[in-house]
Write a structure and sequence with these properties.
This protein is of the alpha+beta class. The protein is built from four helices and four strands; from the N terminus they run H-E-H-E-H-E-E-H. The protein has one domain: Translation initiation factor 3 (IF-3), C-terminal domain (Translation Initiation Factor IF3), CATH 3.30.110. It has helices at residues 4-21, 38-53, 72-85, 120-134; strands at residues 27-32, 57-63, 90-99, 102-109. It comes from Leptospirillum ferrooxidans (strain C2-3).
Length: 140
Amino acid sequence: MMDFGRFMYEQSKKVHAMKQNQRSGQVKEVKFRPHINEHDLSTKINYVQRFLEEGNRAKINLMFRGREMIHTEVGAGIMQKIIASIDPRGIVEVPPRMEGSSMTMVLAPNPAYKPSEKGGDREESNKKSQNQEQGTENPK
């Protein structure tokens, strides 16, 4: 026989511990327009990549106005560029779809992707180039 009160207490402790271990993250939204320059597009894609690396989900909102609604294929092309550029960092959680006058999709961080330390690769390549100049290579 077991004390029911103690059992309920242990169950609530387990549920509380499981909730603490979960990391939900926030949904960050980035707004685009159909006629966007390449540099502006790459800047906004960098923001999306940073959000995904931080563990947050990213909502992409592509807004159409007036006559732009006729050319939704331009928006679909932009969405495909975004998907291609975030490929290792994120996955498409909700595929692109039209909602009124805007096209939206949601990207989630890829759990299999592990970002490397910033500058770590650069330091190793600098050491290798210095060793090659001196004629010595550091064996690993």
